[in-house]
Specification:
- The protein is α+β, with helices and mostly antiparallel strands.
- It has two domains: about 210 residues, MetI-like fold; about 120 residues, no CATH class.
- About 50% of the residues lie in helices and about 10% in strands.
- It has 15 helices and eight strands.
- The strands form two sheets. Strands 1-2-8-5-6 form a five-stranded antiparallel β-sheet, with no helix packed on it.
- It starts with a helix and ends with a helix.
Length: about 450
């Protein structure tokens, strides 16, 4: 009864702490949660279809490729490491290795830098969202379609290829593009002009105050510019001047006297003319639409009128993008067009997460925008830049579509991924060598993938 008076239950004094915790340990809610947790074997049962599919589509091909890489083309004889050493032998394989190294070094670096510039420069413009959407839009296009687009962009003909059309337009701004490929003087003796190493020169010396007639043949109609006018006789030459006419000495339908301008014959505008004495050019001129020209300040004494040979070579047609040394940089340029939007979006997200206080504090301390960018923005963005760079390295090691479509089978553009396909399915008929290249690519990609996983785990911590 005393315990009742004290207000303390008997169970509390008799059982102590154990008596207090015993009801809590045996709560029915905990047992219910334990019953709701599925056993491990049931979880594995649900995962089994996905595991089987993963093993069939991923694990089995990897294991089979590794095993197949140690056998010859027929698959009957064990070849050891011959397929692996063969990757670094032969001209085509070495070109593929070299180009892959160029891709790994150049493409991710350039794409990351361009993406960084886009992300930084678009922070302060109102239409940044529209700009980012336009830059990111090529990511929605497949590599195959992008390859077809740039195959057309890099066409050699400036009338078809956008790249060469732009180059020709810029070239013609600074230099007259008029030329008459294949044109030349009439053959035979007693002609007023003759061929001399590709240039056209007058047969005899001339002097200031005289006029020169320079008839040309073999001028193709398509090379006649729209500004060409009927050929005119040369105007009278004043003191210290030498005049002349350069024209297409051909009359449609026949007739007309040779070596003199006739009705219906066209002048050749834009032809560069020089007065030469002792191998030195003393005066220059360019023909007018009617083919006439006037050389001024011609010194006293005999000179030779010369039409330089560059008048008769093909006009500038741009660069040969799809051949020689430019094909790999050209394909990397198309890769930049596709992936710069990807880099820009990720880096822009990283920029948005940078504390503005750090940037403003640097500006208050007197740092210039370049110093803020170099000493504050770049260090804070380093993790994002590293993720973008490593992701692009992984992607570049597997690049195939752009090289296959734009390169068009040119060995100078080959990379390891394309060489793997060529050896196995594209005419090489050597699955062993192709499997060895595939395993080599897997080994090259694996460290980059592991580094990305490590970086993600470090960021979570």
């Amino acid at each position: 009864m005393k315990s009742r008076e004290d207000g303390v239950p008997p169970a509390a004094t008799a059982g102590g702490a154990a008596a207090v915790t015993a009801p809590d340990a045996g709560r029915p809610g905990r047992r219910a949660r334990e019953r709701l947790t599925p056993p491990s074997w049931l979880a594995l049962l649900f995962l089994l279809p996905a595991l089987l599919l993963l093993g069939f589509l991923v694990v089995y091909p990897i294991v089979y490729s590794v095993v197949r890489s140690f056998f010859d083309a027929s698959g009957d004889s064990f070849a050891g490491l011959d397929n692996y050493t063969g990757v670094f032998q032969g001209h085509d394989n070495l070109v593929a290795v070299r180009n892959t190294a160029i891709w790994v070094v150049v493409a991710p670096t350039v794409v990351t830098i361009v993406g960084l510039l886009f992300a930084v420069l678009t922070e302060r413009i109102r239409w940044s969202t529209a700009f980012k959407m336009v830059v990111f839009m090529p990511m929605a296009i497949s590599f195959l379609a992008s390859g077809v687009i740039f195959r057309l962009v890099y066409q050699q003909d400036p009338d078809k290829g956008v790249a060469n059309a732009a180059m020709v337009a810029v070239h013609d701004l600074f230099r007259d593009g008029t030329a008459y490929p294949g044109a030349g003087p009439r053959a035979g003796g007693n002609q007023p002009v003759r061929d001399e190493g590709g240039a056209v020169v007058t047969a005899g010396p001339l002097a200031a105050g005289q006029s020169a007639l320079v008839p040309l043949l073999k001028v193709k109609p398509e090379y006649l510019p729209a500004k060409a006018r009927p050929a005119a006789r040369p105007p009278a030459a004043g003191p210290g001047r030498l005049t002349g006419t350069v024209w297409f000495d051909f009359t449609k339908g026949g007739g007309g006297a040779p070596n003199v301008p006739n009705a219906g014959e066209s002048g050749l505008p834009g032809v560069r003319v020089e007065a030469v004495r002792g191998g030195k050019v003393v005066a220059r001129a360019t023909t007018r639409p009617d083919g006439t020209f006037e050389l001024r300040k011609v010194p006293a004494g005999p000179v030779t009128v010369r039409l330089p040979k560059d008048n008769f070579t093909a006009s500038y047609g741009g660069a040969e993008w799809l051949g020689g040394t430019l094909i790999t940089p050209a394909i990397i340029g198309s890769y930049l067009w596709v992936w710069s939007g990807f880099a820009m979006v990720l880096i822009a997200a990283g920029l948005a997460a940078i504390p503005r206080d750090a940037l403003e504090a640097a500006r208050v301390d007197g740092a210039t925008e370049w110093q803020v960018f170099r000493r504050v923005t770049i260090p804070l963005l380093a993790p994002v830049l590293m993720v973008v760079l490593v992701t692009l390295v992984i992607n570049v090691l597997k690049v195939f579509d752009l090289v296959f479509v734009i390169g068009g089978g040119d060995p100078d553009a080959s990379v390891l991924a394309l060489q793997m396909w060529t050896e196995s399915f594209g005419g090489g008929d050597d699955p062993g060598a192709g499997s060895a290249i595939a395993v080599l690519l897997f080994l090259l990609v694996l460290p980059a993938m592991l580094f990305n996983v490590w970086r993600l785990r470090q960021e979570r911590k």
